[in-house]
Specification:
By secondary structure, the protein is an alpha+beta fold. The chain contains one helix and six strands, in the order E-E-H-E-E-E-E.
Amino acid sequence: IEILSAENGKVVSKFVVEKEHLNINKHLFGGYLACLVDIGGSFAIGTQSEKLGVSTDLQLSFLRSAKEGDVVIMESQLEKMGRNVAFTTVRLSVNGKPIAHG
């Protein structure tokens, strides 16, 4: 994952889908997308706090597939941060088209 920008609650990063990221149908594995949403949330929180904590809930909607060689852009946003809980939104896209969000 390459971080392109990070500022005040928002992080934009990218990664290239490689063969080891694919499921049996040669599409980006859904579990990998879930992992990215979790990581992206931590990236966004990290712009505001040194204390990252643990995930308590993870929701993910799959919209499209991605294939080997695709460049996935991940936009991570810190929505709200309290003393003990933070809320984030992560959007993943390929060529400007959303593939997942959570």
